[in-house]
Structure formats: structure tokens, C-alpha cells
Amino acid sequence: MELQGKLNQIFCEVFDDDDIKIAPEMTANDVDGWDSLSHVNLIVAIESKFKITFSHKELLSFKNVGGLLNSIRCKIIN
Amino acid sequence: MPFNSLKYFLFLPVVYLLFYFVCERARWCVLLAASLLFYAALKVPYLLFVLPLVAITTYGFGIWLDHVESQKAKRTLLWSGIAANVLILIAMKYLPFLSENMKLFSALFSLDVHIQPVKAFVAIGVSYYVFQAISYLLDIYLEIEKPERHFGYFALYMAFFPKLLQGPIERVGDLMPQLKTPYEFNYDNMRFGMVLFTWGLFKKVVIADHLALLVDPIYSNVYGYKGLPLILATYYYAIQIYCDFSGYTDMALGSARIFNINLAQNFNNPYLATSIADFWRRWHISFSRWILDYIFKPLQMSWRNWRNCGTAMALVVTFLVSGIWHGASWSFIVWGLLHGIYLAFSVLYKPIQKRIYQKLGIEKSKITRFWQIIVTFNLVSFAWIFFRANNFKDALYVCNNFYYGLFDLLLDLSIKNIFSGRYNLTRSLGPIDFVLLLAVITLLLSIESKKDFISSISSKGKLGRWSVYLGLIFMIVFLGMFKGSQFIYFRF
Predict the structure, then answer these.
(1) Do residues B155 and B213 both lie within one domain?
(2) ipTM of the predicted structure?
(3) How close does chain A come to B311, measured CA to CA in Å?
(4) Domain residues for B18?
(5) What is the model's pTM?
(6) Most-buried pick from A61, B1, B114, B348 (CB within 10 A)?
(7) A52 phi/psi in degrees, rounded to 5
């Protein structure tokens, strides 16, 4: 499964909504229930699924789903 | 030079005329000079040294951060810049509190240490521009913004007079592009700015200052009261502080809008919040955004493996810092901690509450929403006791005595008793003033709950528009209190 598809699956699990279709330009305002509490669960789920760790700087500068995807892609390749 | 003074009513148009008539290249100089003059009018000479010190330090670290390549060096520079700013803030604001508590600490453990008492500095505005400086450094470190090279514009970003003393705390990405945009006269902005300024002045001098007449006698001698007067004084204070601070913010936003500058919105009907988290999204928004972005999020992410417990802890620590920022006293620390505890508890309780509401099918009912607003308002008002009380001991007395005889009083409460002075509910105000005040508060809350109400005044017909303008001016002139009144948030 391609990266965006895998990430989409994590979004559906964390936000308990199978209809979510993520896109690079999407932000927290576009997903129902994406607040600071669920954001932590999302990050922890991504880190454990892809076996990666985000740095503080990365975590604080994600602007949208695209930023998140790029960061995951870089970490997987390296 | 407070916004509600005659001096400022003359200062603002003079600065505007100068700004309007000079050439575009000199406009930032006019605003910067006006801002320094505005600060100098406080007649505290050392503040005119502190502001440039913060500006020069932050400007230098900003440029330096952009020059270095390695992440390690960037981190070191960021922390050095933050430390320099925090040290300035501590020196200005917290030394007396620290020395007092160290003295207590050494007495408690019978340590033979001589600690000199430290005199408090006047630090008006310092905590606001220091927070703005830290946000600037962090935005550069996180590569959200590029550093400003023009020192004049940077100094203006730090010192712009409408937001200098009490915020809003501006992000460089929001304010700097507006400061650099060539000015063109805009009638709508001018009118909007003037109406917003007048509305803010009305909230301050008519409502907040009249409420102070009811609150101050009770809170300056809490031991003379028990029960209902303490409760009402606390509710009055909740409205007073809102009208005082949001009135100030409206005047700041109105002043800036005259120069075509939109400052950040600081309030959005906070007493209609349905939870404490919602309250902090509506109250002192620029400050809560700051503490959430720069304190809460890093802590929350550091403790992310502890999930909700980590988030709850991050909230407690964040709001503890918020309490300390508001003032160097135990009352403010407890006020901040209370909000932190409310929020931490709601993190753990929210999933259970959601399930209960879903089961009962009342998740989106109006009654649930109304109930949540009432509960939130009461929780916030309870915390205000610590914010308003003259000291921690007074606050504890209020907490231990506000419920005294409450049930009997509720049964006994009649119009006659309210105005008889028996419960001191209308102390310093006559019955007509009291009814007028309640009517004005109700009107205010219902008007402000409408979106863009200032624009809606401007879009009324000539008669409707001018009736509102003249009505406001009439109330300000005849009911306003201009003598010796200061804004509550000045001291932070």
C-alpha cells in the first residue's frame, strides 16, 4: 500500500471515521475531532506504525498533512 | 498615557495627521517615534532602556539564528536568546517575589542567610513585549518566518503603541507585512477603528469602572462580608475584568485600524464558552495561543508516550506558567493552577462525558449547551476569586465563606431586601444605577454575541448609525468615570 494510503488508514483508526480521505493540503480544521488531544494519539500511532521518531522541531512545524507525509517519507527512505 | 485619558484623545489624531502627511518612507519613523513617546509618557525612565534592550537583543539573535548552519548551534542560540529575554523579565518583575520567598524559606529551615529586600520595578508592558520577542525567535528557529533585517521596522514591530502596554501579543508574520504595506486612506477602516475605539471606551469607563464601585469595597475588606455579597462581588468582577480588558483591546484594535493595521483579536464572547478549553480559545486569545504553541505543545509532545496523562500534566505546567506570568504572587499561581487542573481533569473526563451524552441523546441539545455555559462561567468565576483578592489569605477567606447561609438568603431574597442595603448588594449605587447597570450588562452580552456587530452598526442607515454613535458618546460623557481609573491588565 502506498504511503498516503497507509497514513489514511491511521487517520481513520485514530479519528474513528472510515470516511476520512486525506489530502496533502488538509489541516486540522478539515478533520472533525482533530484537536490537540487527538493529535498526540495520531503522532504516537504514526511513530509506532512506521517505526520512526519525529524531532521536536518537526512536530512543531507541521503545517498540513503534506508536511507530515514528506517527513514520514524522508525518515522511511533514510 | 492610558487609552481612556484626554492626553491620548489628543495624541492619537496628532500622530495620525503626522503619519498621513509625511512621505511613505518616513511613516515607520513617525509610528516608532510616537510609540516611544507614548511609552515615555509613563514617566518611568528605565523602561525606555528596557524596551530597546529587548529589541536589540532579539533582533541580533534573530539575524544570528539565520546565519548559522548546524542545528546544534541554532538550538544553542535559540536558548540563549530566550534566556536573555527571560532574565530581563525576571529582573523587572520577579525579584521582589523571589527574595521574599527565599527569606521565608531560610526562616523555615533556620538558615543563617541574609537576603536583601528587593524593591519592585514598574514593568508595564515588559511581559507583553518579552513574550512577543520569544515568539519571534521561535518562529525563526522553526523556519516559519525569516528574520527582519530592517532594525527600524523590527523596533516598530516590538513597540507599536496600540499594542505596547497590554497586547495583543503579535506574531511577526501577522504584523510585519501590515507595517510595511504602503498606506492609503481607507474610509471604512477609519470609521470601523473609531467606532471600535468608542465601543471599547464605553465598556471601560461606563461598565467596568461602575462595576469596580461594587467590587472594590467588598474585596478590599472581605472579612466584613459573608455569603451572598461575596458571590455577587465575584460575579460582578467577572464582568468587570471582561469589560476592562476587552474594552482595552477594542481601543487598541480601533487605534491600529486607523492606520490600516489589523491587530490580533483577543476576545470572542468568552462567557459563552461551553468548557474551560473553549474559554481559553475565547479569552485573551493572543496570550493563550502563545502559551499553547510554545509551552503546552512542546511539553505535550515530549510526554506523548504517556498519552492523556502526559497531556494533562502538560496542561497543569502550562497554566502554572500562565499564573506566574500574570503576577509574582501565590494568588496568581493558584489561579493558574486551578485552570490547569480544570483542563487536566477535562482531558480525563471528556471521553466519559461524550459517552454519557451520546447514550442520553443530549449531545447537541440546547439545554446541554446552556448547562455547559453556566458550569463553565461558574468555574471561571470561582478562579477569579484568586485573581481579584488582595492576597492569598483573603482569597481563602472568600472560598470558605461565600456559601455561608446561602440557602436561607435565597429564600429571603426579595426586591425589597436587595435595595434595602441589608446584604450590601448595591453598595455605592442607588436602585436606578443598579437596574441600569444590569440592563447594560445584558445588552452588552447580547450585542457582542452577534458576529461583526461593529460592521453591522456601520452598515445601518444614517439615522440608525448616528443614533448608536450619539448614544454611546452620551453615555461615555455623562456616565463615564475618568478619574484615577487604571486598566486591570496594566500591571501584567
Answers:
(1) no
(2) 0.80
(3) 7
(4) 6-183
(5) 0.83
(6) B1
(7) -130, 165
